[in-house]
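FAQ: What does a multi-protein file look like?

Like this. Sequence, then tokens, then the next protein.
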Amino acid sequence: MSTMGIIFANIYDSSLGELTNKRTMASLPYGGRYRQIDFSLSNMTNSGIRHIGVITKYNYQSLMNHIGSGQEWDLELEEGGLEFLSPYATDHNASYRGKLEAMNSAMSFLKYAKEEYVVLVDSGVLCAIDFNELIENHIASGADVTVCVKKGIANGEKLLDMAVKTDKKNVITDIAVDYAADESYLASMGIFVMRRDRLIREVTEAVAHNRFRFERDLVLHGYTEGSLTINAYSFQGVALFNESTAEFFHNNLALLERNIREGLFRRPGRTIYTKVRNEIPSYYGESSEIDDCMVADGCVLEGKAVHSILFRGVKLGKNAAVKDSIIMSDAVIGEGAELEYVILDKDVVVGAGKKLCGTYEHPLILKRGEIV
């Protein structure tokens, strides 16, 4: 079975506010050294998928810089390998209203491919998944569309792009979109499988009738009209939904829990790769106190940090204190500064003696390059 992949880089950027003002959701830093797209790319290449299209509309320079030639994921940046489906490649100059329009603008990528199946992946859900198992389940089901779902996400409060309910035989009995589903539902992980020829037909038909949302206007529409059969594949591993600023904050700190960390990064055969950046080891000063933190390479730490994620190249001054915070690459925290429930984007400088404090549900965010 031959399979190609499509990754949506910035369909849902607006949900992360200031963190994605100048970058795509796919290029958002995560976990000290990764970007969110690393999970999608690694899952595909680990599953033998080598023909991948990354659909991106704007703010994609940092994404392209991160992926480079694709060598870290054993991919080649060329036709038939890894392709950026940017506005220059698709001749689409308006904002995408949804994934159907995005795919329609990149229709030549789909039409000239030779693979039989397509895996569609969002950039907001992080996991280590074997797509071969997913595709085999799809083929065995005989369904037109398979959606990858996760138990335990729906809670009656979180608004889900799509949720499904199944019976004891795993047959779907209900599908809802843009819905705060209760615990009886399974949450879509934004991962779908279809035959390529069927996907082309459905996308073309939907866009011709002004339907542009994949979940609502293709999956739900097909299910309710009886024109598509839908299969649910339940993923049993760790899946983190980074679909809001609060979730991004919580899911970074969740890496300090061993079961979460190992569920993402220590699955046999499911290594998550990222761009190599050679750094010297982190330096811990004589007066530094680092407790329950994840620390990347190249840091200079002379203050105190507790229950925090410190990305590459962070500088923490003497007598500075950081607690429950996410400090991205090359941020500088001056002497005596105090931070709690804060997200510092890349290259932020916090002056000596400054005090910054957010809350667990509403962390304080400093945009990239800010000086305070």
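And here is the next protein:
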Amino acid sequence: MERLDAIRSFLKNYDGPECKIMEVCGTHTAAIVRNGIPSMLSPKITLISGPGCPVCVTVTSYIDRLVELSDDRRNVILAFGDLLRVRGSVKSLSEAKAEGAGVRMVYSPMETVDLAEQDPEHNYIFAAVGFETTTPAYELMLEEASRRGLSNVQVLTSLKTMPEVIRWLCENDRGKEHPVTGFIAPGHVCAVSGYELYRPIAEQYHIPFIVSGFTGEQLLCTIYGLVRERGKGTVRNFYPQVVKSSGNPAARKAVESMFRPCDAAWRGMGVIPGSGMELKPEFARFDAGSQGLWEDHTGNGCRCADVLMGRIRSQECPMFGTACTPQNPMGACMVSQEGSCFNCYQAGM
């Protein structure tokens, strides 16, 4: 406890060079807000959210494709709850459902297999959105569908990988007046991928990375470490009980058996080479048309893209808390429970 008190005192009274620390995990975003961590820090330490919410970084053309598929009465679209409320260029899946389209919320991808087996007259398409953490679940789902001999199970993929987008952020941050000085590495993602993937980025851009757990104490220790390591290209693991340097080789092997790297579109950032995962050609029968969904149309004044890139904080968007609320979200960052805007609003920030 004495050590933690010393860390708290250091962070509250810090008066050194300005530090701008980015978390790239939606669960970290929620935990930081829930624990009131921004209020425990010196004005010279700024926390910003990055592209760590999979729903938030999904582009509108992907939603449009899901809506289009749901209009075909032979299809049933299955998705996690947050994704249903994200608008495409015209409407959301929730709005399509209200108009009679085949859309259902599920809690697990594996529900797709049971539903498809019970209803062979319909094609069940799962909205496969996520990072390295969730991709293994989609591999298991499709493997089980194949084992059962089902021909009415498909996915529409919008699967992202973290290292490439973080490298993109670092490259585009060069020369800025207040660049990111440290990254809270994504704990859940690193549990699968390991953390050595970030070492080349850390060394190239002289930015420290620390893998963190999700308690308030763990996050404070991580922020302390990133402040102390400012300017150093180091990678550390403060979550050893869950994260190993090699991650989860079995999960990665399963993913690699069915998926391969591809270019991917990120909200506000465009297409980033090698930052996504797609089904291999031999599994194309499971794909509902995931290729080329790269367009993003957000012309309603929403500044989610700037939030995801760390250019502004949620509260700096002029729509935050007025035109845009969880009850009436204008952007994906206010829809998702992992979104920065949602969490800031819930905390009254």
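Q: Is there any per-entry metadata?
A: Some entries carry free-text notes. For the entry above: The longest helix spans residues 135-147.
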